[in-house]
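Researcher: Last one for today. Full complex below.
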Amino acid sequence: MRRRILPLLAMFPFLLQAGGFQVNLQGNKQTGMGHLGTSFYLGASSTYFNPAMMGLGEQKFNLELGASGIIGTVAYQNQQTGITETTDNPVGTPGYLYATYKINDKLAAGLGIYTPFGNAVNWGEDWSGQNLIQDISLLSVFIQPTLSYKLNDKLSVGAGLTYVVGVVDINRAVPAPIGNDNSVNLSGDATGMGFNAGLHYQATEKLSIGFSYRSQVDIELDEGEANFSVADALETSFPDQGFTSELPLPSTTTLGIAYKVSEKLLVSVEASMVDWDAYESLDFDFDNNTASLDDSENPRNYESQIIIRAGAQYMVNEKLTVRGGAYYDPSPIQDDFFNPETPNTDNLGLTTGLSYNVSEKFVVDASFLYIYGFERESEYEPEGFGGKYKARSYIPGIGLNYKF
Amino acid sequence: MLPAALLMGCEPEFDDVEFNQGTADFSTTVAVGNSLTAGFQSNALRREKQLVSFPAIIAEQLKQVGGGAFTQPLLAEGVGIGSAGNAEFGLAYSTNCAMETSLAPAPIAAQGQIDQISNPATFVGADGPFNNVGVPGAKSYHLGFPGYATLNPFYGRFANPSDPNETVVAAAMRNNPTFFMLWIGNNDVLGYATSGGSGVNQTGNPNPATYGNNDITDPTAFAGTYQQLIGALTATGAKGVVANIPDVTSIPYFNAVPIGTDAVDATTAAQLNAAYAAYNGALDNAVQIAAAKPWIDFSQAEADSRKISFTGGQINTFVVLDPALTDLTDTAYTNVNPAFAGVIQMRQARPGEKLILTTPGDSLLCAMWGTAKPIPPQYHLTAAEIDSISTATDAYNNTIRNIASTEGLAFVDMASILNRLANGGVTIDGITFNADFVTGGAFSMDGVHLSTRGYAFTANEFINAINATYGANIPKVSVGDYPNIEVTN
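Model: Here's the assembly. Have a good evening.
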């Protein structure tokens, strides 16, 4: 197969956070304890973590909202040239809003709005991997209406639909043989649909088990805009145009167990299987192909991974609860297919957090997550770009709860 | 419980990559060779391109592993100077005979910096010795030839003013080098190839003094010359790296112009076939004449291979003149039929044969070259000529590889590297290079010499070879840091 001047305009950013540095930040209480919360109730954020639990709270109405600031840096070192380059990422600020309402003792309804894929990687215009990616930014919003039903005192189930809206903006250099500042901006809106479901089983007073499934969401970008900024001589080869693309956000299956050691202390462990096998390649379909600009198929060949989480919370007094936890999140990216657009190392997350009951109705949460990205030496073989990568992230977050 | 080290350092950081010289000593490095070593690009030597000659790129990297200063005989700032007095070629819009405008290589100025190779006041020899003694046009046997400075102004302009007979190798050795790079031999076949095989294949004649400029150097003479060059360069203990010779048919100069056309429709094909009917008939007639005259030879097989036929709507190879064909204007034929005076040595080209880059495009497009008129032989490489070139190249390359191995020198297999470019290309840091003319990125606008990025890529290949042989770790360059050509109008 003949390679084109612009070999593969292969990029789609929605995976940045999920495989990327899998920063799950869908609830500050959960984040504080290793981002687990599938097997025990922590408020309205159950809408996301396990919809079966939405009716397990004491109050009729629960409202929860929060946000985090992602301060993350990835470093790259080319072992051949010795050059080290680092990202200059803007601070990402994903947030969430959950509301649940107990219709009766058995049935509860909820709505979750959260941003599980929202971040930015900026390697700079002139870095050595500019032909793969210069910068990428993404804002996505998941909207999830949900119902839960208490089958009996021990067993609850829940399910919801997810509607996903995303906005993406990507810049990369165009490696054409003429001219020296050729680049393309790719932008567009994408939508997708999915569902989630959960099961919660209170085995004993102390032991509870939770299971949740979040389906794969196929994100479709139907009206992307590709705007080329190329030397005059290349304008007919790279006309501004539309494009379409599609990307699977993989399903996640989580099983968790929580144990109340005492009235004050709860410990929990979880395992999440993220079905990254679904992400085999990224097809990119331009409206106007030219001799220099072909549609492309870009291998990703991600591999499914299991994330292990452990955490605990301790009620210091009536007002204050403190939390801590850790997780290990292995990268789904094989060493031959590691693209700096999604520079995902194996990650260890260390977390801490607290909740402070300002009043009966009003609680403030805070969390802090530190992500240590293990060094890896990898290549994106199709583009001949590789080296060592290392990542660090610092993510403070704050959440507010109101219940009555 | 967790290692404290995990939490240290706010930013991800790496230790510096450790580079070293291994068992080599790069403190005084010299580069010996031809135009490729000099940094020639796009039909000219030009100061801004000399600065990114592949030896200069390597020398800059060697500074991280003990390399010293690397001086080059730089031209004055300007538009460059080529062997025809021309300026460097750029890429400019031009309009052809069919009034189609497209980008094509063209000189960036009406005239090159002729004073740089003709006016002794501009010569830089007094600034020597130079670490880069690459001489455009040099063949293997020129490097050790006393008096070459008077024959080749590209050497004359930087030759030792106090010793006008100093050889190129001696000029390099004046540096007392600890390390050398040698890439020579390309011109020992290239002149023959770029002239459409108009020179002589001197295989079997070991005396270069009798050669013309477009001849193929005798492989035995090449081997002797090469051994002497290596002997001279290693005489004071220097280590080095040598590179072999690319197959000329892998370079764009011989692939940019197709060997046939798909522009002949059925009507034109019928007209052409009618026009060539007399020629085709004469060929059969010549067979009969030759059969009756045992002292001449013209076989039916040659007659059939020369017959010209066009089919509408498909690719037809061009009609070419081939002086290797039997001359039917000989009296043996014209005495029988005077019309044989017009039966010229022509045939259709065969797949695998080449037209050179400078074949006049307008003549092909608008003057019926290759269809109604045969293409002159200086633009055409026949299969036999290609075979002569590759046989000689293979012999040179055996010599280079064997001597490199015997002497323990690093060896760069540029032949297979350029073959990879010609067959699918190489992708580095998201940039795909191949040997396509202009669009391939690796070659300059002359279709023979590399582009700046092509030279940077070559520098990395040399570094690979040096690292492998001497246990060194020399940093490579990011090829993408070097500029592409820009359109000049």
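The domain at 15-403 of chain A is CATH 2.40.160.60 (Porin). The longest strand of chain A covers residues 183-202.
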